[in-house]
Task: inverse folding
């Protein structure tokens, strides 16, 4: 079996919330919708000089010769699925992550750190988003660099240094791109708020210096939750323009109980944390979860 090394862009594209889709449509109908969506995504791969490596359920993994081809393909995937409406009246959302680096090519598959980083970036990406890394942005031509915005820093298991993650603007009316362009004086409350989290006697702080962290069962999470209902990369908290946003990426959902007793459940959705309260990963508060992350916004 031939084994070679190459410098490629590795891209993962996934359907967000497909579990909910099966609940709404039933197995047969949902399977047909997923298959149609995967076919739409896959069609954009050869159209941008890419190679489809594998399809895993509702996710595709593919490679491209460079960063520009991967970015253009990712944008076309989002636009094509939005236009085709494969779910009919039920919106179908993608999340796509990609990274450029050296890989080992063997038996029609690719391996290596670059693949692991691409997968990690894709896992943290929200519905309707495309994200990538600094190493990839550095390889983009000037016209495509104008489409990316830095959003947070994160770490990777086994790596000492954190890396920057960028969001790709693919919609003409993208409101985030407009907000990112605001001057510091016009950004509301930028740099004033702090979020304090407590779990198992340890405290964690988010602010304008440390803008994100990941919660989950995986050992590479900043807050590692010891519960079998927690997903490996369950949820992320981001600092955005003076607000703290919890984004769920999990199978079993995330639950927030605010100080006034209101409870919000998230399934591949996001919510702003305010005041004080508690977060439960994968287990509703009605079931009396023991593994709670307490939070307070100051």
Result:
């Amino acid at each position: 079996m031939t084994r070679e090394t190459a410098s490629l862009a590795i891209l993962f594209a996934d359907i967000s919330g497909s579990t909910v889709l099966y609940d709404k449509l039933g197995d047969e109908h949902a399977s047909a919708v997923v298959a149609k969506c995967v076919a739409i995504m896959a069609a954009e791969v050869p159209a941008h000089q890419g190679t489809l490596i594998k399809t895993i359920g509702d996710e595709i993994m593919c490679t491209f010769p460079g960063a520009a081809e991967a970015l253009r393909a990712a944008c076309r995937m989002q636009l094509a699925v939005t236009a085709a409406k494969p779910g009919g009246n039920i919106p179908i959302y993608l999340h796509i992550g990609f990274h450029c680096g050296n890989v080992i090519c063997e038996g029609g598959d690719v391996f290596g750190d670059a693949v692991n980083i691409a997968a990690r970036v894709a896992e943290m990406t929200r519905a309707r988003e495309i994200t990538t890394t600094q190493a990839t942005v550095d390889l983009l031509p000037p016209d495509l660099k104008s489409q990316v915005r830095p959003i947070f820093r994160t770490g990777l298991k086994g790596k000492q240094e954190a890396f920057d993650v960028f969001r790709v603007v693919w919609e003409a009316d993208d409101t985030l791109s407009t907000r990112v362009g605001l001057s510091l004086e016009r950004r509301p409350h930028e740099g004033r708020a702090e979020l304090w989290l407590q779990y198992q006697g340890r405290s964690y702080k988010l602010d304008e210096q440390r803008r994100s962290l990941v919660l989950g069962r995986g050992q590479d999470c900043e807050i590692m939750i010891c519960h079998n209902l927690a997903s490996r990369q369950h949820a992320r908290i981001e600092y955005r323009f003076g607000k703290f946003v919890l984004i769920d990426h999990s199978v079993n959902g995330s639950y927030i109980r605010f100080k006034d007793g209101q409870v919000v459940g998230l399934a591949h959705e996001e919510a702003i944390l305010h005041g004080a309260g508690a977060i439960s990963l994968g287990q509703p508060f009605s079931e009396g979860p023991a593994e709670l992350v307490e939070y307070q916004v100051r």
About this structure: Helices lie at 18-25, 27-47, 67-84, 113-123, 134-137, 142-145, 175-180. Residues 137 and 145 are 6 Å apart (CA to CA). The first helix runs from residue 18 to 25.
